Amino acid sequence: MTESVQEAPAGSAEQLPPEAPGEPGIVIRAADALIAIPVNFFAEIGVVASLLGQALFWGIRRPYRVRLWIDAMDFIGVGSIFIVGLTGLFIGMVFGIQLVDGFRQFGAENQVGAVVGLALTRELAPVFSALMVSSRAGSAMTTEIGSMRVTSQIDALTTMAVNPVQYLVVPRIIAGTLMVPLLTMLFNLIGIFGAWIICVKVLALDSGVFIDKVRWYVDLEDLNQGLIKAVVFGFTIALIACRQGFYASGGAAGVGRATNRSVVHSAVAILILDYIVTSLITGQGGL
């Protein structure tokens, strides 16, 4: 029995599907990642600048809603007194121990009061106060505004003809700008007091010498330098916290990511601005 074999007609051979393009190479992925860094950075700067412009525009327009300003000041300022005071106390105590231990090697422990006062007023008080406020109040502001965004409460404000930037962002920026300098002054007082306790009551330095050095070496210019930094830090913390919360998305997980970005971005901004402001005030550092 002969089997018949039918040959496929010419030109009708089975067409194979085209090969799928391969994954991009490691060099291309690395280049994309490097390009994305400056692109994302400038995009973030644009978003923050846009929100700042809206806040400045709506901040001078009525209604002013002073009650919201007071509530924000209470939350940022009064609510942060304990953590700022506790931090200032232990920073002053630790700084006093380190200075006495180091200066005694050179017989210069009578200069501890001057160094403690200058370091706290110029640098430690504004930086640590801002970091504590960003960790406590900044993260909470981001979470609050972000929760309102993902639950459509901000859209509801717009529906009721209430500008959300004027209602949510402006009071917090004003409060942050005003309250962080006050907390910085509190940090100064408690930090110097903590250093005095350790240096005088524990390490047996002369109390009169310690206080006299603080009085003679710490002047209004040093206080102003720290307060200028505190104003810049407070403004920046509030702006970053509001930006991350106002544009949060992705439900509860997105709010969590926005809160994390708020704390990290605030800390990095504080350290960068600290260098910039110090360079501008002192005329050194290349700026």
Describe the structure.
The protein has nine helices and no strands. The N terminus is likely disordered. The N and C termini lie far apart (99 Å). The protein is mainly α and 287 residues long. 78% of the residues lie in helices and 0% in strands.
- Find the count of extended strands (DSSP E, 2+ residues): 0
What is the share of helical residues?
over 70%
Class from helix and strand fractions: mainly alpha
CA-to-CA gap between the ends?
A: 99 Å
Cα radius of gyration in angstroms: 29 Å
Mean pLDDT figure: 89
As a percent range, the share of strand residues is under 5%
Question: Unreliable runs, pLDDT <50, ≥5 residues?
Answer: 1-6
**Main sheet properties:** none
Number of helices: 9
User: What overall geometry do the principal axes of the alpha carbons give?
Assistant: globular
The string of secondary-structure elements, in order, is: HHHHHHHHH
Pick out its properties.
globular, single chain, mainly alpha, 287 residues, 9 helices, 0% strand
Short description:
The protein is mainly α and 287 residues long.
List the helices and strands and how they pair.
Blueprint: H1 26-59, H2 66-76, H3 81-103, H4 112-150, H5 153-159, H6 164-202, H7 207-217, H8 220-246, H9 251-282
